[in-house]
């Protein structure tokens, strides 16, 4: 992949959505009892496929038939600073918005912390949350469902994409989808995080539209007929669940892969060398090891996760 992949779709002008229940957050209450459902885009400012979807639904005037519908553009400042000459830099302003959710009781001294405090009350209201993401590298779409059974069940109810990834989050900080009741085994609240594919591929927009269509229809707050009919894509014949067991991080950014790896590639034999970190071999811990979102095909900073390893369930 070239350093800056091509941008295959137009970015929406989101300034028209600034005024809402909070800046760039819109809440629609049907007045009829039902769940509160939140669809969030731009948790990272350069992950734009989800913003295309939320912009389109706002423009369409979608309203819930029951319950409450919340739309949010999360890290809007990072998005508004997007520079096509340096497109990866607008992922964030100061820090990763999706790693601050265990620190919201601390001083808000970054743009992302300040914005998370604005977004938090709406996240806390939600019974169901869909967080729309995309990937730095080309890869198959993934649904990250968290560690709980109900996350897997909801991902299966949505019915796409093929791969459901069950994991416990990131050591670097708590994600929004794991915040509060979403990570509580005693709660019924459920959050899903979709990785739609490479950030600026047109196919990522198609995936985001399909998943959002299915998710909203599954919650029951809208009918399928309320949503654009051409958003729904064909349903995979089957889905598979991958349980993440290891997160491999590079100590000093010196990881060297033995070859180029593909996302969700299955390595047949335990002990297969994936690469070397500071000269030490990194190997697969078991047979049929799945490589979840490998970042080994590009330069990395110290401490960055190189790849997560998972078992097929």
According to CATH, the fold-level topology of the largest domain is Aminopeptidase
* Shape, principal axes of CA atoms: globular
Major pleated sheet: 11 strands, mixed
Number of helical runs? 5
SS strand fraction? 15-25%
CATH superfamily of the largest domain: Zn peptidases
Q: Catalogue the unreliable spans.
A: none
Oligomer description: single chain
**SSE string:** EEHEHHEEHEEHEEEEEEE
Taking Cα atoms only, what radius of gyration do you get, to the nearest Å?
19 Å
Tell me, rounded to a whole number, the average pLDDT.
95
Describe the structure.
By secondary structure, the protein is α/β, with parallel strands linked by helices. The chain has 2 domains: 14-231, Zn peptidases (Aminopeptidase), CATH 3.40.630.10; 243-312, RNA polymerase II/Efflux pump adaptor protein, barrel-sandwich hybrid domain (OB fold (Dihydrolipoamide Acetyltransferase, E2P)). Helix content is 19%, strand content 25%. It has 5 helices and 14 strands. It has helices at residues 49-60, 76-80, 111-125, 149-158, 202-219, and strands spanning 25-29, 36-41, 68-73, 128-135, 142-144, 163-166, 190-198, 240-249, 256-257, 265-267, 273-277, 280-283, 289-292, 305-312. The strands form 2 sheets. An 11-stranded mixed β-sheet has the order 1-3-2-4-7-5-6-8-14-13-10, with helices on both faces. A 3-stranded antiparallel β-sheet has the order 9-11-12, with no helix packed on it. A hairpin with a 2-residue loop joins strand 11 (273-277) and strand 12 (280-283). Helix 1 (49-60) packs across helix 5.
């Amino acid at each position: 992949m070239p350093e800056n992949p091509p941008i295959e779709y137009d970015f929406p002008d989101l300034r028209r959505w600034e005024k809402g229940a909070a800046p760039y957050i819109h809440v629609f209450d049907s007045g009829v009892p039902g769940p509160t459902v939140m669809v969030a885009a731009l948790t990272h400012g350069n992950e734009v496929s989800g913003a295309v979807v939320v912009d389109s639904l706002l423009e369409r005037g979608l309203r819930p038939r029951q319950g409450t519908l919340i739309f949010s553009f999360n890290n809007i400042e990072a998005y508004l600073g997007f520079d096509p000459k340096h497109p990866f830099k607008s992922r964030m302003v100061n820090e990763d918005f999706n790693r601050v959710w265990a620190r919201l009781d601390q001083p808000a001294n970054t743009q992302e912390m300040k914005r998370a405090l604005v977004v938090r009350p709406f996240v806390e209201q939600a019974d169901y949350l869909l967080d729309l993401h995309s990937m730095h590298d080309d890869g198959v779409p993934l649904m990250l469902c968290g560690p709980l059974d109900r996350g897997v069940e909801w991902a299966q109810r949505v019915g796409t994409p093929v791969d459901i990834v069950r994991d416990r989050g990131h050591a670097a900080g708590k994600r929004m989808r794991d915040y509060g009741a979403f990570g509580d085994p005693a709660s019924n609240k459920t959050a899903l995080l979709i990785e739609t594919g490479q950030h600026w591929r047109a196919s990522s927009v198609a995936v985001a539209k399909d998943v959002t269509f299915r998710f909203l229809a599954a919650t029951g707050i809208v009918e399928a007929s309320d949503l654009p009919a051409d958003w729904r894509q064909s349903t995979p014949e089957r889905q598979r669940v991958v349980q993440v067991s290891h997160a491999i991080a590079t100590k000093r950014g010196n990881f060297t892969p033995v070859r180029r790896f593909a996302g969700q590639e299955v390595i047949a034999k335990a002990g297969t060398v994936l690469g070397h970190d500071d000269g030490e071999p990194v190997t697969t811990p078991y047979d049929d090891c799945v490589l979840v979102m490998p970042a080994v095909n590009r330069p990395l900073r110290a401490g960055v996760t190189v790849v997560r390893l998972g078992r097929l369930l």
